Each structure stands twice: as structure tokens, then as C-alpha cells.
């Protein structure tokens, strides 16, 4: 984690976080003291290759780094309040596909069930962002999630959008050629 952050990434998304202890270890690796134990870096892309006084370096980079943990199992959802309580976590992201696989139920059942309600309350209480991934092409469900408080919604991927555009272009070209 620190290697990608030192290389200029502005944040990390870590999958399959199930316990407070895992969340604490992630914060320790991704945050500078006093929040974590990430090693102080020298000049680098996150600083625009400029010298920054040490007294400003850690607070600046801690504030500018997003730490996003994914809850993708029943265990993670059950522990969401404890995970949300960890200082240094910015976003709790429901990984809908993996969660529904773990629970053995359809996505819509999970979203309308306890998972987002529990997470939304925990996020509000601890001032964390609620996120949901894996909800593609369903604007009604996305709207429901936003109404619950989701502010980080992964509604698709660049690959899906490129493929959809290519399909539209192919259909349009075929229609014009007839």
C-alpha cells in the first residue's frame, strides 16, 4: 500500500476487510504518524516534487490520501460499525457482487436488506462516506442507495462504457449501411 501511495496514488481501495483489526492495520500502513506508521517520504509525486517542511508533510498527505475499505462478506457487514470507528478510514464500500455471493442472495435483496441500512447508520455516526460498488445499469437502485446516504457509487467500469459505445457505434453504422 505504501509503495503505490509513495508512487503518487491519491488513495487505495482494499478488498475483503472483515474486522476492526484489519482496518487498523490498513490505517497503520497508509497513514503517517500520528495516525499510522507509514514511513516519511522524500520528494515525490504526491508533493509535486517540492520540499515540504516535515511539520506540514504528514498532515498534508494524511488529509490528501483516501483510504477506502471494502466490506464484501457477512462478517464485514456485521463488523461495519467497529470498522467505521477506526480513525483514518474514509469510505466503507459495499462490494455488492462479492457480498451477494457470500450471502447466496440476489443484489437487490442485499441492498434492500440490512447491509446498507446498517452501514449507512455506522457511516453517519463516525462521519465516514458510504460507498456501493457493483450496481450497474440500474439507476433506480442507484437512486435508492444515494437516498440512504451513499456518496461513492461505482455504477460501471471504463471497459463497460467503452464496449457500450462500441456497440452503439456498430449498430448505427449497420443501420446507415442498409
Q: What does this protein look like?
A:
- The protein has a single domain, classed as Phosphoenolpyruvate-binding domains (TIM Barrel).
- 53% of the residues lie in helices and 13% in strands.
- The chain has ten helices and five strands, in the order H-E-H-H-E-H-H-E-H-H-H-E-H-E-H.
- It has a five-stranded parallel beta sheet with strand order 1-2-3-4-5.
- The protein is flat, with a radius of gyration of 19 Å.
- The relative contact order is 0.12.
- The model has no long low-confidence stretch (mean pLDDT 86).
Key features of this structure:
flat; single chain; 53% helix; alpha/beta; 5 strands; 178 residues
| Class computed from helices, strands and strand pairing | alpha/beta
Architecture in CATH?
A: Alpha-Beta Barrel
Which CATH class?
Alpha Beta
Q: Tell the overall outline.
A: flat
CATH homologous superfamily designation: Phosphoenolpyruvate-binding domains
Number of helices: 10
**SSE succession:** HEHHEHHEHHHEHEH
Amino acid at each position: 500500500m505504501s509503495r503505490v501511495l509513495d508512487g503518487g496514488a491519491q488513495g487505495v481501495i482494499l478488498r475483503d476487510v472483515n474486522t476492526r483489526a484489519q482496518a487498523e492495520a490498513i490505517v497503520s500502513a497508509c497513514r503517517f504518524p500520528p495516525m499510522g506508521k507509514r514511513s516519511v517520504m522524500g520528494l515525490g509525486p504526491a508533493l509535486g516534487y517540492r520540499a515540504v517542511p516535515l511539520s506540514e508533510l504528514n498532515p498534508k498527505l494524511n488529509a490528501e490520501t483516501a483510504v477506502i475499505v471494502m466490506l464484501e462478506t457477512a462478517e464485514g457487514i456485521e463488523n461495519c460499525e467497529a470498522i467505521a470507528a477506526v480513525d483514518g478510514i474514509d469510505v466503507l464500500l459495499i462490494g455488492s457482487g462479492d457480498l451477494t455471493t457470500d450471502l447466496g442472495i440476489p443484489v437487490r435483496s442485499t441492498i434492500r436488506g440490512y447491509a446498507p441500512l446498517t452501514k449507512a447508520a455506522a457511516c453517519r455516526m463516525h462521519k465516514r462516506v458510504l460507498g456501493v460498488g457493483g450496481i450497474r445499469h440500474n439507476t433506480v437502485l442507484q437512486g435508492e442507495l444515494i437516498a440512504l446516504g451513499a456518496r461513492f457509487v461505482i455504477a460501471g467500469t471504463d471497459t463497460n462504457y467503452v464496449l457500450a459505445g462500441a456497440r452503439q457505434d456498430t449498430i448505427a453504422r449497420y443501420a446507415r449501411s442498409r
